[in-house]
Write a structure and sequence with these properties.
By secondary structure, the chain is mostly helical. The chain is built from twelve helices and no strands. The longest helix has 30 residues, at 128-157. The chain starts with a helix and ends with a helix.
Length: 280
Amino acid sequence: MSSFRKIPKPVVVLIALYGLEGFAANLAHPVTPSLLKNLAMPAYVFGLAFAVMQFSNFLMSPFWGNLCNYFQARKVLFVGCIGYAVGQAIFGLAQTQALILLGRIVSGAFVSATAIAAVVSLINLTTPEERKTSLPILLTSFVVMGTFGQFVGGVLGDFGIAIPFIIQVAILVFCAFAFLLTGKEFTVKERDKDKSILKQSNPIQSFIEVKNYLTPLFMMQFITVFLLSFASTSISQTFGYYIVDVLHLGSSVNGMARGVVGVISIILNTTLTCIGQCHV
């Protein structure tokens, strides 16, 4: 308990808001299969929508990281939450495949801003010693609240698919202004007029720059993580669609299944981490 008391109050506020954002971010996941099915979309649209969201997330992550060097992280958090809310509003209101994909692209592009800026804010608010405790708590708060959000979103979806989207957008807008008003000001770099932030944010260039560090051991670990992530994502995404499309069950079942799996994952990760630390 003593380590928790050492966390500065601004960090506690950051953790609480980031957890709330995690709750909101996961509200719509359980109802997505039902939404697409009601729109009579082909099955591939479900996978395609997720893919374009993740791809835009990947493309924009270096940009937001560089932006945090020159602008206040609280402002990046504000923009990220507002942009994410807009993307989810587009997605929730979409009636065509093009608008569905547009909504997913916008959401993926802006949700990466909040993830990066939240960590940057925490780093600026803490000492290296405080960071050892607060950083895992920050990341865990998003996961734990996200699990709860999936459960609540699934249950609400049985009363109306639009309800989780409405609540999600409202909470994201609230988080945006809360981040902006409660965030602290920090010293940022002066912008180099000769260098464009976009040019510095090429994700492909990042891979090229680390080629000297790609040892056989690192490559093996990279491939292992890639395969695990590929398998995990395939199962988790397909399972939700299977529940709705094949078993014809409601979004509440999807939300409860996601919630139970999330809780088990959190318990196992925490337990195994503690066991590993005890034997180090």
